[in-house]
Amino acid sequence: MSIDKNKADQVDERPTREVSVTVNGKEITAEIEPRIKLSDFLRYHANLNGVRVGCEHGACGACTVSVNGDLIKSCLMYAVQTDGDEILTVEGLSESEDGSLHPVQEAFHESHALQCGFCTSGFVMSTYDLLTDESNPSREQTKKHLSSNICRCTGYQNIYEAVDRAAEKVSDDESITLEENN
Ligand code: FES
Ligand code: FES
């Protein structure tokens, strides 16, 4: 099979744009094709594999991250749209020097709120966002806020219990400030 050189050259000449973002407090600049989704940019350019890619059309919530403090499904944004923005991923929650987990992550661990774990980083980010706005959410508030995330394994009960446990941890420890990670 012969290769059409003109077509090969066209592929090499795809337009790119520079994008510069702050991810988990670190600046990342890259030259990328405008078609690259934020989820793929975070996974393959920033090596942040906690950003999961499940459905790729906004249904499962596995790719949830925070952009400038807003909860975003990163498969629905192009990376170039976030130029100049501040992004927080699940990795950014636990950047303490001793490697300890964030209280929301601890709560998921202690409540056995995961099985395969594919959905977990999305749920942790959504829970973090919920507790940032509402420190003591009712079960109804929790269900509503997490309704944009899908778990196929757990049946949700332990996830809801993890949210309650995370809320207790945050309210019991005045040194924890959720906004400090934004
Ligand atoms: S991968 Fe983004 S919502 Fe499912
Ligand atoms: S733990 Fe498997 S999808 Fe949620």
From TrEMBL:
One matching Pfam family: Fer2_2
Source organism superkingdom: Archaea
InterPro entries documented for this protein: 2Fe-2S-bd, 2Fe-2S-bd_dom_sf, 2Fe-2S_ferredoxin-like_sf, 2Fe-2S_ferredoxin-type, 2Fe2S_fd_BS, Beta-grasp_dom_sf, Diverse_Oxidoreductases
Listed GO MF terms: 2 iron, 2 sulfur cluster binding; metal ion binding; oxidoreductase activity
Domain 2Fe-2S ferredoxin-type, first and last residues per copy: 17-93
Keywords: 2Fe-2S, Iron, Iron-sulfur, Metal-binding, Oxidoreductase
PROSITE patterns: 2FE2S_FER_1, 2FE2S_FER_2
Protein's UniProt name: Aerobic-type carbon monoxide dehydrogenase, small subunit CoxS/CutS-like protein
